[in-house]
Design a protein that fits this description.
alpha+beta
Length: 116
């Protein structure tokens, strides 16, 4: 079976990401993989001002990911039964929605902007 395709990640419209999990639980692999994708240098270059916070709990709590966007919207994953590609695709979908709402001038500026 081929490996699932993961999209390239853009944090352009993301203000903050909080990833919370208990490392002793068996169902945190996808959450940790998501964290490695959004924390990768290529993703961080798309928005160096995006804050990524990891909260490691030791209380057997379920893993979850809380994403705040600059427009005030929030995306929350209760990631116990989600795969990494599912979460990455949903983040990409939310990014594309925000990009579609930009004016043509803003789109051109956003695509021409060089990462810091």
């Amino acid at each position: 079976m081929p490996a699932p395709v993961t999209p390239s990640i853009s944090l352009q419209f993301v203000k903050k990401i909080v990833v919370q999990f208990c490392p002793w639980e068996a169902n945190v692999r996808s959450t940790r993989n998501f964290l490695s994708h959004v924390g990768a240098a290529s993703a961080r270059k798309t928005n160096p001002d995006c804050k990524i916070q990891t909260v490691v709990k030791h209380d057997r709590s379920s893993p979850h990911i809380h994403i705040d966007f600059f427009d005030g919207k929030q995306l929350i994953f209760k990631s116990t039964h989600l795969t990494t590609p599912e979460m990455l695709h949903k983040l990409l979908k939310w990014h594309n929605i925000r990009f579609a709402q930009l004016s043509p001038e803003e789109k051109e500026k956003a695509t021409a902007a060089k990462p810091r």
